[in-house]
């Protein structure tokens, strides 16, 4: 569990089981670590990074508290399968963190974007999210309640979902849809004790963005749009995700939690 030694305030998820998608690298891996540190048992999926996934499991305490599942997420049915794997591992799902997604790095003007790219991005970033959420909510409703909340869902959107992103309309459309999905789920589920919120990061320093951020010209332009003047560290995204799954966020539902150094206010 995470404790502030000066005040004695503890953010604990002891006894909870968290499913974190896209957990082998970047924001996902930081979230896996933080949830394990808070006392949760964690299941996360990966697609290609098997070595990194197994190293993360070992770092977090081994398979008794953390499991990695090789699972592609590109359809609702694959989302269903991942939830089933989490339940098979630890018996329940209390927190579902929808972190996975793809961002085609090449610019694609809308007049030139292929149907294949559009379908692939929507399949991964939206269709599979629907599958995970559908199965996770069903599981949360069916399992014995532990503590105050019946469950927590946190969707990971983006500043692109709020203000768009030229030449990446497919990505921005999916992230905007997650914001609408958050509000819809909150209205539908909060009366049953299932919280749904959204964290919307801006630019984050990860292995996926290192190439862009190391380009002096591109980096200068991007950072000029962030009032704080730098990209986020992955822990600065993982911590708000964790907070939203604790009792400290017990009166927060349907919220779009911007974590972007002020960027969404000036873009």
Automatic annotation (TrEMBL):
Which keywords accompany this UniProt record?
Answer: Oxidoreductase
Q: Does the keyword Oxidoreductase apply?
A: yes
Question: Which Gene Ontology terms cover its molecular function?
Answer: oxidoreductase activity, acting on the CH-OH group of donors, NAD or NADP as acceptor; quinone binding
What is any one GO biological process for this UniProt entry? fatty acid biosynthetic process
UniProt xrefs under Pfam families: adh_short_C2
User: Would you say which domain of life the source belongs to?
Assistant: Bacteria
Supply the InterPro entries for this chain. Answer: NAD(P)-bd_dom_sf, Sc_DH/Rdtase_CS, SDR_fam
The UniProt entry, under CDD domains, shows: SDR_c
On whether Metal-binding is a keyword of this UniProt record, the answer is no
Q: Indicate the family of this protein.
A: Belongs to the short-chain dehydrogenases/reductases (SDR) family.
According to UniProt, the name of this protein is: SDR family oxidoreductase
């Amino acid at each position: 569990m995470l404790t502030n030694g000066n005040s004695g305030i503890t953010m604990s998820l002891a006894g909870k089981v968290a499913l974190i998608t896209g957990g082998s690298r970047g924001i996902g891996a930081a979230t896996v670590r933080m949830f394990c540190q808070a006392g949760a048992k964690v299941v996360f999926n990966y697609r290609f990074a098997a070595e990194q996934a197994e190293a993360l499991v070992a770092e977090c305490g081994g398979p008794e508290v953390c499991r990695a599942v090789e699972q592609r997420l590109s359809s609702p049915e694959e989302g269903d399968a991942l939830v089933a794997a989490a339940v098979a591992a630890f018996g329940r799902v209390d927190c579902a963190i929808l972190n996975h997604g793809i961002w085609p790095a090449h610019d694609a003007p809308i007049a030139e974007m292929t149907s294949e790219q559009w379908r692939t991005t929507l399949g991964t970033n939206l269709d599979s999210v629907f599958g995970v959420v559908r199965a996770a909510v069903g599981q949360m409703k069916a399992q014995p309640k532990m503590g105050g909340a019946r469950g927590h869902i946190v969707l990971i959107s983006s500043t692109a979902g709020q203000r768009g992103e030229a030449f990446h309309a497919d990505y921005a459309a999916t992230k905007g849809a997650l914001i609408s999905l958050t509000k819809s789920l909150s209205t539908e589920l909060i009366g049953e004790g299932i919280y749904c919120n959204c964290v919307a990061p801006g630019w984050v320093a990860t292995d996926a963005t290192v190439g862009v951020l190391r380009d002096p010209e591109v980096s200068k332009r991007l950072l000029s749009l962030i009032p704080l003047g730098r990209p986020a560290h992955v822990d600065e995204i993982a911590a708000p995700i964790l907070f939203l799954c604790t009792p400290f966020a017990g009166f927060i539902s349907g919220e779009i939690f911007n974590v972007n150094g002020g960027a969404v206010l000036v873009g």
